Amino acid sequence: MLTGTLVSGLGLGSMYGLVALGFHITFAVSGTVNFAQGSAVTLGAVLGYAFGVQLGWPMPLAAAAALAGCALLGLAVERLLVRPFVARGSDAWLLATVAGGIILDNVLLFTFGKEPRSLPSPLVSAPVQILGAGIYPLQLLIPVVGIAAAVAIRAVFRGTELGRVLLAVAQNAEAARLMGIDVARTVACAFALSAVLAGAAGLLIAPLFSVSAEMGALFGIKAFAVAILGGIGSATGVVLAGLLYGLVEAGVTATLGSGATQIVVFSVIILALALRPNGLLGRAAVNKV
Amino acid sequence: MPHRLTAARSLTRRLAFGALLAGFASLGPVKAAEPVRIGLVTALSGQSAKSGEAISRGIGLAIEEINRNGGVLGRPLELVARDDEANPSKGVLAARELIQRAGVVALIGGLDTPVSMAIVPIANQMKVPFVGPWAAGTGITRNGAADNYVFRVSAVDALVDEAIVAYAVKTYGAKKPGAILVNNAWGESNQQGLVAALKAAGLPSAGIEKYEANDIDMVPQLSRLREAGADALFLVGNVGPSAQVVKSLDRMGWAVPVISHWGPAGGRFDELAGPSAARVHFVQTFTFAGNDSPKAKAVLDALKTKYPAIKSMADVTPAVGIANAYDATHLIALAIQAAGATEGPKVRDGFYKVPAYAGLIKTYEAPFAPDRHDALKPDDYIFASFRNGEIVAVSK
């Protein structure tokens, strides 16, 4: 039972971490976030189903196409729902991205339908027995992908030209522009990458669960809680918080029953933020006057 | 928001439905007399639309047959339908409007238990019989009213729980069953029913576990039941989470018999749960597949003629909706005939006077009595499972 709980918690936790990394990236580069992240999770899974099952494409191609669709969504969100408001110095992008998510959810509801469908995968066809617990190979793959994504993003930020550009924009957009960096394109890239991470989470979780037009909503909310908990400015903090969240959630379900899960988990989050207001690995913002 | 966006669609559907009804109301040979109207309140749009469609088709076919044989009291029977969008307050509005403005003699419908529960007090106050062809909530017919106008031709939670306990004992020799139920009002209603049914059968329980409708992994709850020594499992939940329970059982490698309420019948259970879907035996009141009664064959043929959209067995799901509504409509007509009048109290007493009716589900002998408002009993339920995408009876 312990092994099962651990695997289940790490798997779900790294999903939250992936989606929360998306919040981190756009926040780090532009100070804005895409609250339609939950809908990007749904879109990744729904497009994966449409391409891989309905159109019968090979799964790697279907997954790549689904992620491309998510990238387009990220670009559209930035161009239509964030940039016009930021340009006017308004915080209305906050509500605009929430509204965009609701619109996308309902469009998916009409096109995909309310009935949950199954996304088959050879990685969930037969469980392997590990320490007395039946585990699907996909459940082992999910944390690997989650942690790999965090490491890769850290490496990009620290060690590549693109990373230096992103950091430059994050630190001082005006100065970056003067240095010849295309700030608008950089921010758009961050939004696209953010939606791709959420879509990947949707694609990975779908074979374990089912594809439905409502699958991403709760994910988006939990991932935002995870981003805040980890310290939204820290990639490592966000992924760590995701894994912790998943483990606490699975642990509470196993010991106290699922009726208590949300109550206990969100109480723990409030407590953690009371003790560390900037998140686990976050730093307090410095206000220069 | 979903409601806003569905409004236009549901309006079109309502118009289309109205046109359809107007079409078949004029088909019958009895045309001259003022029609006797019955009102349908059910979900015709949204998530339950397919079930609402099944109910509508069952009623439509029954009314066509009744009118072909002279109608009721020498007048044609006519249906007036309203969409409740699975929303109790819309159901209440529709029920009032049908009684007060359309002047219906009886109401049929209430697909969701909460909608039915909201219509019950109106039917009792306004003294208009209300017949449920779907919702299983125990309190709908057993509503405690001194003057009860609510009848049902469907499963009843309390009786389903008795039936699944009896099935576990008879089929699997269960000695210590456990239960895993969805954490909502439906699960709660069945928790009470299961506790009572196990007590009546003199069986100890291995425990009753709950899960949330969006849980992905039920292994923790199921592990506790296995450790408690459960030798059979009762399952209550809609199609999605029921499939997750089966997947969790697969991963645990636990081959325990699973006996379920009718949740799995509400969608693509075999696709979601995979090959192990067949291990779940669930309650139904009726199936077309594997049913060789001449009446079932005749009704299926008549449905195909009347609704050209029906091409295969997959298009007559949920069969329980069609069959319950078909029998309920015939029973309403017989009650009006037995009453010899259309006033609510007389029609209500007419239900008690219906002598016998050879229906689709069974032959009803005195189906209703003042202390028995449910026409179907536990021994009328059948157990079914999914075979190649179809719901097939496994035993009676």
Automatic annotation (TrEMBL), chain A:
Membrane topology classification: Multi-pass membrane protein
TM helices/strands, residue ranges: 6-28, 61-81, 93-113, 133-157, 187-209, 221-245, 252-275
Record protein name field: Branched-chain amino acid ABC transporter permease
Pfam families (UniProt xref): BPD_transp_2
Major location category of this protein: membrane
Record's keyword terms, sorted: Amino-acid transport, Cell membrane, Membrane, Transmembrane, Transmembrane helix, Transport
Signal peptide: none
Subcellular localization: Cell membrane
